[in-house]
């Protein structure tokens, strides 16, 4: 029974990774950029919730939409200010990566300057309860995480498959040049991708601060890396892949904590990444892309 | 074909002699206390950073792969050298150089383990894997017994003392200048050509008979080796180390030295490492502002001059002096053909 | 024994049979053309021959030895060199360095000699510098040796790519649309050059080209691909009158 509880706890943690991984995966699918700043968007989302609830004392149903809007806007702003010029000039990949890194450092230190580098305690977002399922006892946050992440993934998949913008995203990801010739405004598609990815990160931020009620300016670092590992694990560019990768990572982490060692969790996660890259670099559900010669 | 020109050979000699001259000027100033004890410390730090930046430039500038965990190799080297000098029982004058060699070797071994899987894949993966490695190695060092956890190691002795303030400087300076020269000559050898061709076009390089995996791994491991040695000097210069000294911010600082100086320009790395080290000594109390400034510079340089301020240009004192002389003598304007010798 | 021989060579891209049962043979010092409409799979053949793609089935033999499973750099060392449809020069390397890079496989001095500039470094570097300039002289490009290759005009970039391929001392030279973007005069010169390269370097040449005047004039034999299938082979004269080929080009 204890084992099953650990697995479900892992799924709860993995749900947060999965939501963040979706953002990495979408952006990478469209512009082939590892958006290092994506992890810091979670931090921005966390501080938005903190600001609304603690500083202004407003209720949670205000804080969540505000956080989502702030993150989406931040994502779009970052794309316009930092990446746009490089993307339209087809700059070297290394330039894009360094810029993304610059944005990440900028955000972290800006928030450190504004809010200080000490962790801030978060207020209760959703009341914590123990949910009994037969002989299993689960924290309500775990259940919320899993349910919300599954709903989000289904919504996103629907958006990508059915909506006009979703189809435009698929086309841009397949062949940006051809998409442009077919009358798709690829600039807008890129911008929307950043907005949607960042909005999902905001949801991840809310779930994270509900599960671990503490935020600090560099929280996006490790969270971001792990979410990216989840995206690679599942196959970058694939929505169900990102979810699957997130869950696997969460469960692996939870089981390592419970049965091996708390301090080694990060090393185990990292080991999984290296193993995956050695065995199947395209990820569990990813397509193998070849450079055209 | 610069290497066949007589003039270039003379330029090399002059540059080398100027480097040697600077060495002796600094050495005498330090020994006569014209340069204070604390300023000597800063000069040593500059030498360490020049070494680090030159080595990262090999991977990021010359090979064209982004590495975000250079501080991780530095950490490995720092701990390896410290553990050796603390426990070997040999006199420091013998243990220190052996420790430095060891720190390079251990860091290089980590380089093989990280590089082998990562370098088989597309470039972006190396960035994320080295970033992950840098963080993990720090977490592990924070939790192991042999590294003494978050407390770190202390009690490493410096070769220098207030009575004899120069030995550490000699080590740091000589190693820095040797690394700079080696990077320069490497870039102009057949092996360097192979590494540069991978940056330019990996597929074409492989189809022209270059074993790209081998050369990528070589550049990466060589850079790790040098970073490890720099870590070893660092540890003995400060006498105590803990994992937080080798965090992500340190990796970023080294990267920014390379980017700012010009990716592929070794002399650019030397200059920016010197300037930025002095700058961060001055801005020590304003760490957040400093990092915001660095980040802004990174973004702006990438947006408007992606090859860095010097690009791939190498600065040569006699060449500059020649230009200046011509300008003063008001001769006909001389057109440069953009060679980088 | 043929210099190059493929048997039943095929490759599938995500369910699409891009190339089907290709039988192809090139003898020493032959100039052979590979033609066909756009998308027929010509460049795919080059990518298979040079190890960029792994075939789904079939055999490739160079001088009787299978080269299947070898990496591109190993195949280049056994004697196959190529140019690319969209030029792939090392743009920020000098013209001479582009050529010297291809000579790397025949150089011996080690990393330490290179970094410390030991005598072996100077000896070999001087030798290849001379060789690189000799090669450049073929296209009257020796004055451009120290230019960045990115600064060359288009036609000379194509020529440099051919020289770079030759510098790796191939037995078989694969040229992917060497005349693309050249005007009729340049194309005419190129025909002469292709023949003289064959004679001077004793290489066999397999070339992909859309310019029919070049193909018909220079090639001794032709292979015609359409939708991944070999639809004809023979002398230029035979191909010119082949109904299948005419249908493939004009669309039937």
Which SSEs are present, and which pair or pack?
The complex is a heterotrimer of chains A (293), B (341) and C (252).
Chain A (H helix, E strand, L loop, with lengths): L1 H30 L6 H18 L4 H29 L4 H23 L4 E2 L8 E4 L2 E4 H23 L1 H11 L1 H6 L4 H26 L2 E2 L3 H16 L4 H21 L5 H15 L14
Antiparallel strand pairs in A: 1-4, 2-3
Helix pairs in contact in A: 1-5, 1-8, 1-9, 1-10, 2-3, 2-4, 2-8, 2-9, 3-4, 3-8, 5-6, 5-8, 6-8, 9-10, 9-11, 10-11
Chain B lengths: L5 H26 L5 H26 L7 H18 L4 H27 L4 H21 L9 E2 L12 H21 L2 H11 L1 H6 L4 H27 L1 E2 L6 H14 L4 H17 L4 H18 L12 H13 L12
Antiparallel strand pairs in B: 1-2
Helix pairs in contact in B: 2-6, 2-9, 2-10, 2-11, 3-4, 3-5, 3-9, 4-9, 6-9, 7-9, 10-11, 10-12
Chain C lengths: L3 E10 L2 E11 L4 E5 L6 H8 L7 E6 L2 E2 L5 H7 L1 E3 L12 H9 L7 H6 L2 H20 L15 H14 L4 E5 L7 H18 L2 E5 L3 H7 L2 E6 L2 E6 L1 H5 L2 H8 L2
Parallel strand pairs in C: 3-8, 3-9, 6-7, 7-8
Antiparallel strand pairs in C: 1-2, 1-4, 4-5, 9-10
Your description of this structure?
The complex is a heterotrimer of chains A (293), B (341) and C (252). Chain A has 293 residues and is mainly alpha-helical. Chain A has one domain (2-222). Chain A is built from 11 helices and 4 strands, in the order ααααβββααααβααα. Chain A has helices at 2-31, 38-55, 60-88, 93-115, 140-162, 164-174, 176-181, 186-211, 219-234, 239-259, 265-279; strands at 120-121, 130-133, 136-139, 214-215. In chain A, the strands form 2 sheets. Chain A has a two-stranded antiparallel sheet. In chain A, a hairpin with a 2-residue loop joins strand 2 and strand 3. In chain A, helix 1 (2-31) runs antiparallel to helix 8, helix 5 crosses helix 6 (164-174) and helix 5 (140-162) packs antiparallel against helix 8. The mean pLDDT of chain A is 89. Chain B is mainly α. Chain B has one domain: ABC transporter involved in vitamin B12 uptake, BtuC (Orthogonal Bundle), CATH 1.10.3470. Chain B is 72% helix and 1% strand. The longest helix of chain B is centred in the first third of the chain and has 27 residues, at 92-118. Chain B is globular. The N and C termini of chain B lie close together (9 Å). Chain C has helices spanning 42-49, 72-78, 95-103, 111-116, 119-138, 154-167, 184-201, 212-218, 236-240, 243-250, and strands at residues 4-13, 16-26, 31-35, 57-62, 65-66, 80-82, 172-176, 204-208, 221-226, 229-234. In chain C, strand 4 (57-62) and strand 5 form a beta hairpin. By secondary structure, chain C is α/β, with parallel strands linked by helices. The longest helix of chain C has 20 residues, at 119-138. Chain C starts with a strand and ends with a helix. Chain C has 2 domains: 1-79 and 169-252, P-loop containing nucleotide triphosphate hydrolases (Rossmann fold); 94-167, no CATH class. The chains are: A mainly alpha (293), B mainly alpha (341), C alpha/beta (252). Chains in contact: A-B, A-C, B-C. The interface between A and B is large, with 43 and 44 residues.
């Amino acid at each position: 029974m204890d084992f099953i509880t650990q697995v479900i706890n892992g799924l709860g943690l993995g749900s947060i990774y999965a939501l963040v991984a979706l953002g990495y995966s979408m952006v990478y699918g469209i512009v082939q950029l590892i958006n290092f700043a994506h992890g810091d968007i979670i931090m921005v989302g966390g501080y938005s919730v903190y600001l609304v609830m603690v500083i202004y004392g407003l209720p949670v149903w205000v804080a969540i939409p505000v956080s989502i809007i702030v993150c989406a806007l931040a994502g779009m702003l970052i794309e316009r200010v930092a990446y746009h010029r490089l993307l339209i000039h087809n700059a070297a990949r290394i330039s894009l990566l360094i810029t993304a890194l610059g944005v990440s450092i900028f955000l972290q230190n800006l928030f450190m300057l504004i809010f200080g580098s000490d962790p801030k305690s978060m207020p209760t977002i959703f009341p914590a309860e123990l949910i009994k399922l037969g002989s299993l006892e689960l924290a309500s946050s775990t259940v919320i995480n899993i349910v919300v992440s599954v709903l989000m993934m289904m919504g996103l998949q629907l958006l990508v498959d059915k909506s006009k913008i979703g189809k435009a995203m698929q086309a841009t990801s397949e062949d940006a040049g051809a998409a442009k010739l077919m009358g798709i405004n690829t600039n807008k598609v890129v911008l929307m991708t950043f907005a949607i990815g960042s909005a999902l990160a905001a949801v991840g931020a809310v779930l994270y601060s509900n599960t671990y009620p503490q935020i600090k300016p560099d929280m996006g670092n490790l969270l971001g890396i792990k979410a990216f590992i989840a995206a690679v694990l599942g196959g970058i560019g694939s929505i169900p892949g990102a979810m699957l990768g997130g869950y696997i990572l969460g469960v692996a982490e939870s089981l390592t904590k419970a049965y091996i060692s708390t301090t080694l969790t990060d090393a185990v996660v990292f080991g999984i990444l290296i193993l995956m890259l050695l065995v199947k670099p395209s990820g569990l559900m990813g397509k193998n892309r070849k450079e055209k010669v | 074909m610069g290497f066949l020109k007589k003039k270039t050979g003379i330029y090399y000699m002059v540059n080398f002699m100027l480097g040697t001259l600077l060495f002796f000027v600094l050495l005498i100033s330090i020994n006569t206390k014209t340069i204070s004890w604390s300023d000597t410390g800063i000069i040593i730090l500059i030498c360490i950073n020049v070494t680090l930046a030159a080595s990262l430039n090999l991977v990021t500038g010359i090979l064209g792969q982004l590495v975000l965990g250079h501080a991780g190799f530095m950490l490995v080297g720092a701990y390896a050298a410290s553990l050796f000098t603390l426990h070997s029982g040999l006199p420091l004058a013998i243990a220190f150089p052996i420790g430095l060699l060891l720190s390079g070797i251990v860091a290089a071994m980590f380089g093989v383990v990280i590089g082998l899987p990562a370098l088989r894949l597309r470039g972006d993966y190396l960035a994320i894997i080295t970033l992950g490695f840098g963080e993990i190695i720090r977490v592990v060092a924070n939790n192991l017994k042999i590294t003494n956890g978050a407390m770190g190691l202390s009690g490493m002795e410096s070769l220098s003392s207030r009575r004899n303030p120069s030995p550490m400087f000699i080590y740091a300076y000589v190693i820095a200048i040797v690394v700079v020269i080696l990077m320069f000559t490497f870039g102009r050898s057949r092996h360097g050509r192979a590494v540069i061709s991978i940056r330019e076009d990996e597929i074409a390089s492989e189809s022209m008979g270059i074993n790209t995996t081998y050369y990528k791994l070589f550049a990466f491991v060589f850079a790790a080796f040098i970073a490890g040695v720099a870590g070893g000097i660092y540890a003995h210069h400060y006498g105590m180390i803990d994992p937080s000294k080798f965090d992500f911010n340190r990796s970023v600082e080294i990267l920014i030295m390379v980017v700012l100086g010009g990716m592929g320009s070794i002399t650019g790395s030397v200059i920016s490492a010197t300037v930025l080290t002095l700058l961060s000594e001055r801005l020590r109390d304003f760490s957040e502002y400093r990092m915001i400034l660095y980040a802004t510079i990174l973004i702006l340089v990438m947006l408007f001059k992606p090859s860095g301020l010097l690009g791939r240009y190498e600065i040569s004192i006699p060449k500059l002096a020649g230009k200046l002389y011509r300008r003063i003598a008001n001769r006909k304007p001389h057109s440069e053909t953009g060679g980088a010798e | 024994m043929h210099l190059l021989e493929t048997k039943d060579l095929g490759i599938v891209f995500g369910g699409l049979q891009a190339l089907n049962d290709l039988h192809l043979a090139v003898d020493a010092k032959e100039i052979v053309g590979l033609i066909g409409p756009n998308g027929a799979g010509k460049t795919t053949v080059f990518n298979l021959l040079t190890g960029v793609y792994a075939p789904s089935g079939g055999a490739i033999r160079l001088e009787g030895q299978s080269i299947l499973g070898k990496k591109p750099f190993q195949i280049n060392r056994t004697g196959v060199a190529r140019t690319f449809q969209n030029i792939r020069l090392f743009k920020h390397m000098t013209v001479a360095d582009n050529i010297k890079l291809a000579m790397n496989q025949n150089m011996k001095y080690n990393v330490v000699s290179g970094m410390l500039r030991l005598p072996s470094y100077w000896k070999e570097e001087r030798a290849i510098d001379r060789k690189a300039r000799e090669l450049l002289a073929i296209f009257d490009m020796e004055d451009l040796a120290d230019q960045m290759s990115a600064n060359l005009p288009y036609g000379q970039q194509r020529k440099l790519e051919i020289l770079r391929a030759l510098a790796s001392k191939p037995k078989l030279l694969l040229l992917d649309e060497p005349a693309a973007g050249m005007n009729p005069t340049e194309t005419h010169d190129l025909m002469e050059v292709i023949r003289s390269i064959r004679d001077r370097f004793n290489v066999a040449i397999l070339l992909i080209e859309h310019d029919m005047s070049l193909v018909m004039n220079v090639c001794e034999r032709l292979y015609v691909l359409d939708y991944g299938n070999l639809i004809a082979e023979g002398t230029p004269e035979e191909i010119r009158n082949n109904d299948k080929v005419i249908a493939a080009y004009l669309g039937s």
